[in-house]
């Protein structure tokens, strides 16, 4: 019985790690817990991604609010080998994801995407 519980627990931990881990670290937010109504800056490093070396890299943020789900273009500014951007999280947002593309290619963060929950009082909305 103990071995069965251990065998069931292991896949659950792997699934949770896969769902919530933002490994790859190509996109880093200035806030670990972005909140609704907050301005958040980020740094993006295209090194090692499918868009490395591409010109005219563009980014769009999609806010998930269970109503309108607005999208906004992000003004990316070069900073050495990095790109910096800023976004204003709407008050109704529950989560957001950032789409980064160039030359017809999209950086999907190795299939994980760049998806972030919005926090309120230290808890995801």
Notes on the structure:
The protein is α+β, with helices and mostly antiparallel strands. Helix content is 15%, strand content 38%. The protein is built from one helix and eleven strands. The strands form three sheets. Strands 3, 4, 7, 8 and 9 form a five-stranded antiparallel β-sheet that branches. Strand 3 and strand 4 (71-74) form a beta hairpin. It is globular. Mean pLDDT is 82; it is low at 1-7 and 12-24.
Task: Summarize the topology.
Elements: H1 2-20, E1 27-29, E2 39-44, E3 58-64, E4 71-74, E5 77-79, E6 82-88, E7 95-102, E8 105-107, E9 115-117, E10 119-120, E11 123-124
Antiparallel strand pairs: 1-2, 2-6, 3-4, 3-7, 5-6, 7-8, 7-9, 10-11
